[in-house]
Design brief:
It is built from 6 helices and 8 strands. By secondary structure, it is an alpha/beta fold. It has a single domain, classed as 3-Layer(aba) Sandwich (Rossmann fold). Strand 2, helix 3 and strand 3 form a beta-alpha-beta unit. Helix 2 crosses helix 3 and helix 5 packs across helix 6. The protein is globular and about 45 Å long. It comes from Microbacterium album.
Length: 193
């Protein structure tokens, strides 16, 4: 069994502006760096032995901050953890994106099912490398949401809930299957700050 704490990267200026980032490589802002330090403190007593991150700079910097606070080695990167490609939707304000596309297809965007398959393959690979070392995995809201949906059988996130910047959700990886622990951090969409 492997314990995996999936942490969403800290805030960026695009998050603050409620702009769709996707694979656009936007850096953390100072609030995001503080959220990374806060996440590290919340995870301090979890016995974590390594950190793996998406190669996008907002996730990788979050991972570096967490590793430094916890006295862990420099984070590894895993390409399978990158955020969903939102195609023509990247850079749009969230409300404009929803108005333009609703739940329909977005030209050039990665299909949600593919995000789930890719994210599951990534966490399987990470868990298989050293299955007895609790691991912090720093990724993106779309990736973590896909894993939460898969592991909860579609129960989470509930309508209107989202994964907050800096939130950590703890999973168990047992016999090739991903399962949730009791530790789930979701906030209502209207709490967006």
């Amino acid at each position: 069994m492997t314990i995996l704490a999936l942490v969403r990267h800290g805030q960026t200026d695009w998050n603050r502006a409620q702009r769709i980032q996707g694979r656009t490589d936007v850096p953390l802002n100072d609030t995001g760096r503080g959220q990374a330090r806060d996440a590290a403190e919340r995870l301090r007593d979890g016995g974590y032995g390594r950190v793996v991150a998406s190669p996008l700079q907002r996730a990788h910097e979050t991972a570096r901050i967490i590793a430094a606070v916890l006295g862990l080695e420099e984070p590894e990167t895993h390409a399978g953890l990158v955020e969903r490609d939102y195609g023509d939707g990247e850079g749009m304000i969230v409300t404009d994106y929803r108005e333009a596309y609703g739940t329909g297809p977005v030209p050039g965007a990665e299909a949600p099912e593919h995000v789930t398959e890719r994210a599951l393959a990534a966490v399987r690979d990470i868990a298989s490398r050293d299955d007895d070392v609790p691991t912090i995995v720093v990724a993106h809201g779309g990736v973590i949401r896909a894993l939460l949906t898969h592991a909860s059988g579609g129960r989470l996130p509930r309508p209107g809930e989202r994964v907050e910047n800096g939130a950590s959700n703890v999973f168990r990886f047992v016999d090739g299957e991903l399962a949730l622990t009791e530790h789930v951090e979701l906030v209502p969409a209207e709490a967006r700050g």
